[in-house]
Amino acid sequence: MPDSELNPHIARNVSNSFDEDIGTGDLSAQLLPATQISGAQVITRQHGVLCGIQWFNACFLMQDPDCVITWLAQDGDRISAGQTLCEITGRARALLSAERSALNLLQTLSGTATRTRHYVDAVAGIDVKIMDTRKTLPGLRQAQKYAVRCGGGHNQRIGLYDGILLKENHIAAAGGIRPVLEQAFRLAKPGVTVQIEVENLTQLDEALHAGAKLILLDNFDLANLRAAVQHTGSRAELEASGGITIEYLREVALTGVDRISIGTLTKDVEALDLSMRFNT
Predict the structure, then answer these.
(1) What is the C-alpha separation between 238 and 217, in angstroms, rounded?
(2) Segment 56-78, tens digit of pLDDT
(3) DSSP character string of 145-199
(4) 89, 59, 53, 90: which is closest to 72 by C-alpha?
(5) Which of 21, 108, 113, 136 is a plausible cystine mate for 49, CB 3.0–4.6 Å?
(6) pLDDT tens, 163-213?
(7) Which of the 8 DSSP states describes residue 256?
C-alpha cells in the first residue's frame, strides 16, 4: 500500500487507541488548568529505527489541533539511545491524554522497523528481498507493513484480497498443483499476484510446468534451496520461507533465492523504549 493511502488507517488506529485508553474522559488530566500550555520532549532509551511519526502526530492533533510538534528525526532514520526525537508544545491536558496512545504506536512501529533493519542488514550486499507476512498485530496490519518498508524490507500481499497464495490446503482441495493454478490464473485480475507454496523439488517442477511465476519454497533446507534455484533458473521468482532465523539468514540468501519471508518481523515485535518528559 502506498504511503499516501495510509490516512484512513492512521485515523482508525488512533481512534481505537483513544477508545480503550481515554474512554469517556481522562480523569487525571482534569487536575490541570484547562488553559495551561506546556512543552515536552520525546527521547529514545535504545538504538533503533524510527517509525510512526504520522500516528504520533495524529494522536496529539486530535486532542489539540493547535499543538506544535517539531521532529528532529524522520521515519526510517537510525536513532541512538538518549537522542531527542521531537519537541511538543500544546495544552497540557491534551499532551497528557494523548501521551500513552502516541507512544504505544510510535514505539511499536519503531520496534517493527528496527527488527526489519536487523534482518536487512544481515543480508547486505546480496541481491535478495526481505519480505513480511500476514502475521501482524491485530488492527495494525497497514501500520506494520509501513514500518517494514521504513526498515528497508518489502511487503507481501496486504491481505487475502490483493494477492493469491496457494498453500497445501488449497492445492489438496482443488485436486493438485496444476488445477489450482489454472483456477487462480482465471480468477486473478490484473495486478493481482499468484503465488504457490511447494514443499519439495518434485512439487516445484510441477508448479513450473503449470506456469507458476512466483513460488514459495516452504521449509527447504540449504541444499534443496540451492537445487531449487539451479533448477528454476529465470523461469520463476523463488521465495524461501519457514522458520528462518537471523543466525542463518545470510546462508539462505546466498543460495540465490529472490525473496525471503520472515513472520517474526511483525509478530514478535519488541517495542522500542521511548519516553516523553514535560519541560520543567
Answers:
(1) 7
(2) 999 999 999 999 999 999 999 99
(3) HHHHHHTT-B---SSTTSEEEE-HHHHHHHTSHHHHHHHHHHHPPTT-EEEEEES
(4) 53
(5) 113
(6) 999 999 999 999 999 999 999 999 999 989 999 999 999 999 999 999 999
(7) T
